[in-house]
Amino acid sequence: MTTTHDTYTSPLSERYPSKEMKHLFSPEKKFRTWRKLWIALAETEKELGLDITQEQIDELKAHADDINFEDAEAREKIVRHDVMSHVYAYGLQCPKAKGIIHLGATSCYVGDNTDLIIMKEGLKILRDKLVNVIAQLASFAMEHKGQPTLGFTHFQAAQPTTVGKRATLWINDLMMDLEDLEYLYDSIKMLGSKGTTGTQATFLELFEGDYEKVKQLDQKITEKMGFDAYYPVSGQTYSRKVDSRVLNVLAGIAQSAHKFSNDIRLLQHLKEVEEPFEKTQIGSSAMAYKRNPMRSERMASLANYVIADAVNPAITASTQWFERTLDDSANKRLSIPEAFLTVDSILELYLNITSGLVVYPKVIASRLNSELPFMATEIILMDAVKAGGDRQELHERIREHSMAAARRVKEEGEANDLLDRIASDPAFGMDREKLESLMDAKNFIGCAEQQTEDYIREQVQPILDANQDIIGMTAEINV
């Protein structure tokens, strides 16, 4: 690959996304799709009775993929119109068919239909990666379903959960994203052949007033391009609310990924769970010992971009005028491809991170055990009351002991001695051995393990079973 060092290149072209997503938004893919649409239009017009020969169709098909970009670029400098430049370039290669290329159509016939086709294919790529991330997280959740860990609310110590149960929270967000994506994927239609203001007036003229043939033209082109349905009404363009809906779903995936990346970064700070770190990877230019969560941080950074990018099509959709205005075009060329490329990059990171998460059970247990005596006070209180103690008096004594133990930890940096304090208090009638017997972390995780098993079995596994043919993706991070 030739690298140009004296001009701007987007990180979304060189660093982050997968090759398949970059190709999807390439000029080659775009203009080949234009030619497929022109072939579909000509074929259908011939089928419906217009004076188009099979020889002309065959000529168009013979040059469907060998696009003469130089001719189109030279022509565009003269006419300042991308579609007509490519009509001209195609006509140079197809002299017999030149006169029937783009017959009756407007620019949005190729431009908008291509955008819809590419977005739908992009959603399929993202869907498959999303399913694979869910599969990897499901495996992680089941592996660690019974590993007690300290739960946090407000990032303050709270009731224990399990490492696997926490992972189900990440999965649940992605499952909602998958549901939204699949609904959106199924709802995207073709624009079809609607004409300059959506009235199909030119096509009605071509077919000498035969409205049924105009409708058949829409349907046949839609089917030839692999879609089930077309939008029944439009202006010159499909409604730009479609773009806004697409970006909202992509932003939803970004939100879920950002939340996951936050949790991993915090857990890595606690030394409980880490993202993969390669043997030769450098964590810091100054501090050689550091293992910075670079991948999770990049995920968060890219997610912020997508979440902000979702505003673009929302503004565009809300400011369109009547049947068509061109202030959408330049924005669409940036906001739509970049959203897909960025979410693809995010899911590549997500796949990579979840394939190699490292769990440190001893660190997890140590932190949990340091907080467990405080959480065990309710059980200690109940057992002491059952043995004949006064609930209110014992509650006050536990409060006093807890505050004293907390001061020892925070102010003196010493170990938590709450159990020793309670064991030496005759009001409770419990020795250290008895208190230790209550300290099994499994006693404090509630239904976390069972919830994890039920959720994966009942909600996630059916999705994975239905997609076995695509599961097993891997992702390599370029930088």
Please tell me about this protein's structure.
This protein has 479 residues and is mainly alpha-helical. It has 20 helices and four strands. The strands form two sheets. A two-stranded antiparallel ribbon has the order 1-2. Strands 3-4 form a two-stranded antiparallel ribbon. The longest helix has 37 residues, at 107-143. The protein is elongated. The mean pLDDT is 93.
Descriptive keywords:
single chain; elongated; 479 residues
Broad shape: elongated
Largest sheet: 2 strands, antiparallel
User: Total helix count?
Assistant: 20
**Rg value:** 31 Å
Class from secondary-structure proportions: mainly alpha
Mean pLDDT: 93
Number of strands: 4
Outline the low-pLDDT stretches: none
Task: Offer a quick outline of the entry.
The protein is mostly helical and 479 residues long. The protein is built from 20 helices and four strands.
Topology summary:
Layout: H1 11-14, H2 19-24, H3 27-47, H4 54-62, H5 69-79, H6 82-93, H7 107-143, E1 148-153, E2 156-162, H8 163-187, H9 201-206, H10 211-224, H11 241-269, E3 273-274, H12 294-309, H13 311-318, H14 329-354, E4 358-359, H15 361-375, H16 377-386, H17 391-412, H18 418-423, H19 432-437, H20 448-465
Helix pairs in contact: 3-4, 3-7, 3-10, 5-6, 7-8, 7-14, 7-20, 8-11, 8-20, 11-12, 11-13, 11-14, 12-14, 16-17
